[in-house]
Amino acid sequence: MKTPIYVSSGSLEALSYRAICALCFEYNIFGVEFGSSSSVPPADLKLIGEPATSVPHLLIHNYFPQPETPFILNLAAESPSIRALSLGHCARAIDLCVELKIPFYSFHAGFTFEAAPEQLGGGLLSAPRFSPEKAYKWFIESLRTLCDYAGNKGIRLLVENNVVTRENLVNGQNILLLGANSEDLLKMLAEVNSPVLGLLVDMGHLKVTAKSLGFDRAEFLTRLSANIKAFHLSDNDGITDEHLYFDENAWFLPHLSKFPGAALILETQRTKIDKIITMIAVVNRAIAGKTNEYSAN
User: Fold this and answer.
1) In which domain, by residue range, is 78 found?
2) Contact at 8 Å (CB) between 169 and 209?
3) Is the alpha carbon torsion for 29, 31, 122, 187 positive or negative?
4) Half-sphere exposure of 112 (CA within 13 A, CB side)
5) DSSP string spanning the chain?
6) pLDDT at 287
7) Residue in 209, 215, 213, 104 with CA at minimum distance from that of residue 164
8) Which of 144, 191, 193, 283 registers the highest number of CB atoms within 10 A of its CB?
9) Does residue 293 register a pLDDT over 80?
10) Residue 49: per-residue pLDDT
């Protein structure tokens, strides 16, 4: 049996839920993660009553289902109203996980600035900031609240590591984005201290952040290995998070076999189906340990 591999809805060129289901069925794709970039109406998920053979396994991530009134999801926000909106969104996502029998809900670590939606993914230094210490305190409080809520419903929560680019460093330091290195994530896990909480490691984020902050990405994975339950897989130039297609030379492939229980999610952007199938084959080879020719650095 092949290892289950999910594909982000942002990777697929099909937009409607039925079209995505048809594509997955035609090409034997195990499952789909619906995330922030998905334009699929949340109501389409109610189509789960279709024949089982045509419905992929589902995951939901971060800012999905998209709220009617847009806002920046930040569980570490200084604004009580933004934190309340963020907690409410996550609670609804957890409820949807229960309804659709999805084992976990994943979301981004918090941050220490107020930004407009169009600023995310780019330069953040001009955004209004608030205290990193207070942001961390609010983030921990939010996580404890969500862990209690999710734990009572049998749903696991996974925090995704943030991406730190060089353009967003302040005097060479990361003070804008929580959960970017192993020290921060280990501290977070210890303080929340909940069996419900784990990690989703975005390998694209890790590649950029390790270069920006000067740490070893393999050591990052080793230190957090007991808590990693899922991966987002894509490649980039090490400077920005480009969500690029990857091949057998991707740096992270030799590491995947060390996490046999982790969910694997392809998170490239608008990728042709033939390339998606090729990436799935490449990942399956890596999981099988056929990575001698690959670079683990």
Assistant:
1) 5-287
2) no
3) negative
4) 21
5) -PPPEEEETTT-S--SHHHHHHHHHHHT--EEEE-TT--S-GGGGGGGGS-GGG--EEEEESS-SPPSS-----TT-SSHHHHHHHHHHHHHHHHHHHHHT-SEEEEE--BSB---GGGTTS--TTS-B--HHHHHHHHHHHHHHHHHHHHTTT-EEEEEPPP--GGG-BTTB--SBSS-SHHHHHHHHHHH--TTEEEEEEHHHHHHHHHHHT--HHHHHHHTGGGEEEEEE-B--SSS---B---TT-TTHHHHTT-TTSEEEE--SS--HHHHHHHHHHHHHHHTT--TTS---
6) 93
7) 209
8) 283
9) no
10) 52
Give the confidence band of 122 by pLDDT, cuts at 50, 70, 90.
Answer: low
Whether residue 296 is contained in a domain is answered as no
Give residue-wise pLDDT tens across range 211-228. 999 999 999 999 999 999
Cα torsion angle, 9, 11, 13, 19, sign: negative
In angstroms, the first-to-last Cα distance of the chain is 29
Instruction: Output the domain CATH number for residue 195.
Output: 3.20.20.150
Which residue carries 């029998």 as its tokens?
A: 101
Whether residue 279 contacts residue 266, with contact meaning beta carbons closer than 8 Å, is answered with yes
Number of domains in the chain: 1
* CA gap 143, 127 in Å, rounded: 24
Which of 131, 297, 117, 133 shows the shortest CA–CA distance to 219? 297
C-beta separation of 52 from 76 below 8 A = no
Determine the residue type at 188. Answer: M
Closest alpha carbon to 262 in 112, 158, 126? 158
pTM (predicted TM-score): 0.93
Q: How far is CA 39 from the centre of its chain?
A: 17
